[in-house]
Amino acid sequence: MGKLNIVQAINQALQQEMEKDTDVIVMGEDVAKDGGVFRVTQGLLDKFGAERVIDTPLSELGIIGTAVGLAAYGFKPVAEIQFMGFTYAGVEQLFSHASRIRSRSRGRFSCPMVVRTPYGIGIKPPELHSESSEALFAHMPGLKVVIPSNPYNAKGLLVSAIRDPDPVLFMEASRLYRSIKSEVPEELYSIPLGKANIYQEGAEITVVAWGTMLHRAAEASEDFDCEIIDLQTIRPFDEETVVNSVKKTGRLVVVHEAPRTGGFGAEIAALVAEEAFGYLKAPVVRVTAPDAVVPMARLEDHYMPSQDMIKKAFQKVMQY
Amino acid sequence: MPKTIIERSETQFLQVINEKGEADASLMPSLGEADFKRFFETMLLARAFNNRALSLQREGRIGTYASIWGQEASQIGSALAFSDEDWLFPSFRESGVLVARGYPMWMLYRYWAGDERGMQAPPGFNIFPMSVPVGTQIPHATGAAWAMKLKGHKKVAAVYFGDGGSSKGDFHEGLNFAGVFKAPCVFLCQNNQWAISVPRSRQTAARTIAQKGYAYGMEGIQVDGNDIAAVYKVVKEAVDKGRSGGGPTLIECFTYRLDDHTTSDDASRYRTDEEVEAWKAKEPLIRLRLYMEKQGWWTKEYEDAAAKKAQEAVDADIKKAESVAAPDPADIIKYTYKDLTDRQKKEIKEFGWGS
């Protein structure tokens, strides 16, 4: 055990999986010599060589599109896209091919690949570097979407994502990369996809969040009796844990930093309305970013749901 | 200081058998009577497949279909240059390629009748499902070829796309990666002059598509796509080069789509009868027949017998295609992921798909 940050935990997961399985390769822009723009892949080139840690052309469609062919042929590519906003260039490859080759070929071909990408607000970068588009990808059948919230689950979830037989979008909160450290076992371990983690048990409000917002929700919960669920996998998500918790607390607040309309909070609210309506004591409340494009640095703090907004949501549901 | 020339490129065109059926012996690959008969019989088979597909569509027995008429030399000449261990990435207009590789025709008819099981390539066929979005399959072939190289397998991947596909970003990114990583990939542009109603001249201001290979650091060559000997030769050389570590090749098969874009299209809205008639006179079966007749390898009786055999094979496969049990509705969901999600299990019950 040692205390690692998320960058170190992901790096360790990649190293250990690459040692274990020679079909795992890392590819992307600046991932080899430079170790990635966030240094997540640092040191891998020296350890595994240029055939397994590959600097590609500046070409997001090409990275994801060739990964489809590499994966179909037998590799397990872990492709890095430098920022979530740049995955859009490869969306057709993810939506029209990676996610559906198993179905289109009725199981004859598959696409066991991971696309890793930093997401979210918090590092004051240029435009399109702070997107939180998990709902867009989670809507597409055939894809899985995973968002870790700490070094421990970053390692365990990435290991599962690499071993998964289907394509996984692995979203890493850039704000959390180096801001939290936690104990991470040295040995290789995995955390199953599709399972939420009860971050904190509580009796009066179920709070569902992921990534950066999990921490903000936890900070806001001090004066409340909250059960905080770290969703971890957005698709397929752990319906049972969410529903059981709401049956216990009777209240639900969902917090995410993506815009509200069509955000994943809507899916969780709808599930609870369907499965736990009779248990609800208060309306479901979503605390989200507004329906607006992510602003640049000067305004980004205003865009993110604040602790104060989350507290107000808790107060609101406790009025019932 | 004066400007200096730092780079020049040349683009070659290859024809082996001309429109009169005369061959240039110095260019002819080592092919004998048996090879040409195989070409001829496979072309007859692909044409019989195609003609019946068109009639089945008119009868409402299959859905929209993309005809290969006019492109048989490009499709069959190339397909027969590959081995079974090579991986192919076809577009939707490659029925001739699949027929030539021995892909079960009844499965192709099932596919065109709207049944995904038709693209569940049987064991031994390394053929991806036909890509419907144009050009998007190009990077997949690059990736598979790159994988072969990384694993030290002496194989190639090949991808078929059209002149329209060469306008897509996927073309650029796929060829660019292949050039950079020297992936053993054969890029087969089927330049049939028309992308639905838009002519080749509107796809690129470049004189040829072949010359685009140059900028990706790979050889590009234009071949007479209605000359099966030339197509076979160029593709075979590209395959051999790829297998021996020489990297990718871009091949532009210069051919013509004699039919409408698909059965839902009416080509008379955008091109003249004169143009189509001129290309009909140049279609690939006529040329091959002329050449074989000159060699004493063709007689009317031979062709009639081969055509009859092709027709019988096609009829038997249609019968088989139409006798296959309807797909299980649960197939809709069960191949989304390797394992069903909990929600999908509930959905199967909700929809009453049972099993």
Note the main attributes of this structure.
heterodimer, A: 320 residues, alpha/beta, Rossmann fold, 7-stranded mixed beta sheet, 12 helices, B: alpha/beta, 6-stranded parallel beta sheet, 13 helices, 8 strands, 43% helix
Task: Summarize, please.
Chain A is an alpha/beta fold and 320 residues long.
Structure description:
Chain A folds into 2 domains: 2-184, Rossmann fold; 197-318, Rossmann fold (3-Layer(aba) Sandwich), CATH 3.40.50.920. In chain A, 36% of the residues lie in helices and 21% in strands. Chain A contains 12 helices and 14 strands. In chain B, the strands form 2 sheets. A 6-stranded parallel β-sheet of chain B has the order 1-7-8-4-3-2, sandwiched between helices. Chain B has 355 residues and is of the alpha/beta class. Chain B has helices spanning 33-58, 72-79, 95-100, 105-112, 138-151, 169-181, 212-215, 228-243, 273-280, 284-295, 300-323, 331-334, 342-350; strands at 12-14, 87-89, 157-162, 185-191, 194-195, 198-199, 219-224, 249-254. The N and C termini of chain B lie far apart (79 Å).
